[in-house]
């Protein structure tokens, strides 16, 4: 990545952190960098390419270090999932962006390749690897996006607890679970438990094909 393009992406990330993703525009980034908007086009062709570059920058942070490459496949996937959630906790706006845009830049594709290689090592048939990669990515990014949007807020603000207080008889499942819906949610523990379930599913899929 050239120095100017890296500077452009740094500026875009800073604007998103300060004012939200909607504030990121070619004009705003140009002003931050100190050039005309037209000067950006030599490095970023349009706003879509700018957003793709941001996705690549975020996912580049998920790439394993040399030491991580020697770990077992499930440890690598676990570490990658927690690292992705940590990124969206630092940059709440990033969850929706990662969830809504494809991985097309080199760094973004390398992050997907990490998942591919882990699934292959797990013993998943190659024809099933893309599907399970989508399952893993959808879980991690969906959880992160829901968390960032406040969908998982615990206590009285939790929509699940509000649904549990609807009239008896209308929603028998909610009525039965009402005592559990109103409990504070430990999202760290819930994410870990959900991820353990996903990894168990991958192991079961590999055994089925064995």
Overview of this protein structure:
This protein has 210 residues and is mainly α. The protein folds into two domains: 1-45, Orthogonal Bundle (Arc Repressor Mutant, subunit A); 65-209, Tetracycline Repressor, domain 2, CATH 1.10.357. Helices cover 68% and strands 0% of the residues. The protein has helices at residues 3-19, 26-33, 37-40, 47-60, 73-90, 94-100, 106-122, 129-148, 159-163, 172-181, 187-209. The longest helix has 23 residues, at 187-209. The relative contact order is 0.10.
Oligomer: single chain
CATH topology of the largest domain: Tetracycline Repressor, domain 2
Query: Biggest sheet: strands, sense, closure?
Result: none
Helix content: 55-70%
Structural class call reads mainly alpha
Number of strands: 0
Overall pLDDT = 86
CATH class of the largest domain: Mainly Alpha
Please write the string of helix (H) and strand (E) elements: HHHHHHHHHHH
Instruction: Give the number of domains.
Output: 2
- How large, in whole angstroms, is the Cα Rg? 20 Å
Termini separation: 42 Å
Q: What is the CATH-assigned architecture of the largest domain? A: Orthogonal Bundle
Tell me what portion of residues adopts beta-strand conformation. under 5%
Question: Any idea what the shape is?
Answer: globular
Please report the number of helical segments. 11
DNA-binding region: 25-44
InterPro entries: Homeodomain-like_sf (IPR009057), HTH-type_TetR-like_transc_reg (IPR050109), HTH_TetR (IPR001647), Repressor_TetR_C (IPR004111), Tet_transcr_reg_TetR-rel_C_sf (IPR036271)
Keywords: DNA-binding, Transcription, Transcription regulation
Organism: Planotetraspora mira
């Amino acid at each position: 990545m050239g120095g100017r393009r890296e500077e452009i992406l740094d500026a875009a990330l800073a604007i998103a952190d300060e004012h939200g993703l909607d504030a990121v525009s070619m004009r705003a980034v140009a002003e931050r960098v100190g050039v005309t908007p037209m000067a950006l086009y030599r490095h970023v062709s349009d706003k879509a390419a700018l957003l793709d570059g941001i996705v690549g920058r975020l996912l580049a942070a998920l790439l394993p270090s040399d030491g991580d490459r020697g770990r077992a496949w499930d440890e690598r996937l676990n570490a990658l999932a927690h690292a992705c959630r940590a990124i969206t906790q630092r940059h709440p706006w990033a969850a929706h962006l990662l969830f809504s845009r494809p991985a097309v830049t080199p760094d973004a594709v390398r992050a997907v390749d990490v998942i591919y290689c882990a699934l292959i090592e797990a013993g998943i048939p190659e024809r099933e690897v893309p599907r399970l990669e989508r399952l893993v990515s959808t879980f991690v990014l969906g959880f992160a996006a829901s968390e960032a949007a406040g969908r998982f807020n615990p206590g009285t603000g939790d929509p699940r607890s509000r649904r549990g207080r609807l009239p008896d008889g209308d929603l028998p499942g909610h009525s039965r679970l009402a005592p559990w819906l109103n409990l504070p949610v430990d999202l760290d523990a819930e994410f870990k438990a959900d991820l353990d379930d996903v990894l168990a599913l991958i192991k079961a899929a590999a055994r089925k094909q064995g």
